[in-house]
Design a protein that fits this description.
Keywords: Hydrolase, Membrane, Metal-binding, Metalloprotease, Protease, Transmembrane, Transmembrane helix, Zinc. The chain is an alpha+beta fold. About 50% of the residues lie in helices and about 20% in strands. The strands form five sheets. It has a four-stranded antiparallel sheet.
Length: about 350
């Protein structure tokens, strides 16, 4: 069941990403040579029109290959009509950017379904830890948190995330109590047994059912939450605040899917479905953001070269761009091997 759920989640996310590239390329008149799901040897394929649709053996990626995207012109040195090179620079930019954007769209659509059926969590304090930081600062159960350090708070999970990532820094908290606005400075308290700082709040916020308009509003807040969480995680990765053991590749993700399934299975099929959708939202947002990073071989790296072309009025020589992307691809392959090895090592530790 773990393998099946993992393949379904990953398949939906990859198809969404590549479909974004595919649809925008078609709209811009760019020929798509191949639409592939997975990596490695081909399991089966078929051709419809000018595009080959294929399924690869390793379900950890995909590709939407444009005609001429490698920068090679036709034998007579001309740009073939319908090739990637013959399209305007903005058409190419939109076709490349559409993949990550469709990941965000998928995440939003999944959030719509979850919020419509289960509601959302307002940042209302349910319980104060006796003698904790929040009580010391004068906060009480029932307070509605509106801002922390200037960041607007819409979901209680934002409070939990800020608390989990805190390293003892003071928090300036704005909240509403009985219609009145208050502001306090909260100093987290270190718990040596847990090895982390706590802000003295417990519970999971106030869950409520959303009306039709609130479904869209809180689905946007869901998407915003996962985007902020991903950027904060990346910031911690680049500043060395997380270790290799905090990273997970396909094997690690499959393990998380399996553990989540076993945990929620007793509560019925609906709990399983919504839990898997939450994982899909997280992964889809992560894939969208990671692909927009200006790293060679990723969509973000390709966008950098296209934006340079748009600014200077002429493209970077294809052979130079190709070398950069080749180096980036090699680095990504090394990283994938490292993460895979790390995942497998954790299974036997």
């Amino acid at each position: 069941m773990t393998i099946i759920l993992f393949l379904i989640i990953f398949g939906i996310i990859v198809i969404s990403h590549e479909l974004g590239h595919f649809l925008l390329a078609k709209k811009n008149g760019i020929r798509v040579v191949e639409f592939a799901i997975g990596m490695g040897p081909t399991l089966f394929h078929f051709k419809r029109g000018e595009t080959v649709y294929s399924l690869k053996i390793f379900p950890i990626g995909g590709a939407c290959i444009f005609d001429g995207e490698d920068g090679v012109k036709s034998e007579n040195g001309e740009k073939d009509e319908g090739s990637f090179l013959s399209a305007s620079v903005w058409a190419r930019i939109s076709s490349v950017a559409a993949g990550p954007l469709f990941n965000f769209l998928l995440a939003f659509l999944l959030a719509l379904i979850i919020v419509a059926f289960t509601g959302s969590d307002r940042p209302v304090i349910q319980e104060i830890t006796p003698g904790g930081a929040a009580q010391t600062a004068g906060m009480e159960a029932g307070d509605l948190i509106t801002k922390i350090n200037g960041e607007k708070i819409h979901l209680y999970r934002q409070v939990n995330l800020i608390s989990a990532l805190n390293h003892g820094e003071d928090l300036n908290i704005d909240f509403v109590r009985d219609g009145e606005k208050y502001s306090v400075t909260l100093t987290p308290i270190y718990d040596s047994s847990a090895g982390r700082y706590y802000i003295g709040l417990t519970g999971a916020g106030e869950y409520f059912k959303c009306n039709a308009l609130q479904v869209f509003q809180y689905s946007y807040y869901e998407l915003e939450y996962w985007v902020r969480a991903t950027f904060k995680s990346l910031g911690m990765l680049f500043t060395g605040q997380v270790t290799k053991d905090d990273m997970a590749g396909p094997v690690g993700i499959a393990q998380i899917v399996g553990e989540t399934y076993e945990e929620v299975k007793p509560y019925g099929i609906s709990s399983v479905v919504f839990s898997m959708m939450n994982i899909a939202i997280l992964l889809s947002v992560n894939l969208g953001i990671l692909n927009l990073l200006p790293f060679p071989a990723l969509d973000g790296g390709r966008l950098v070269f296209l934006l340079i072309e748009a600014i200077r009025g002429k493209p970077v020589p294809p052979e130079k761009e190709g070398i950069v992307h080749l180096a980036g691809m090699a680095a990504l392959m090394i990283l994938m091997v490292f993460v895979l090895f790390n995942d497998i090592s954790r299974l036997f530790s």
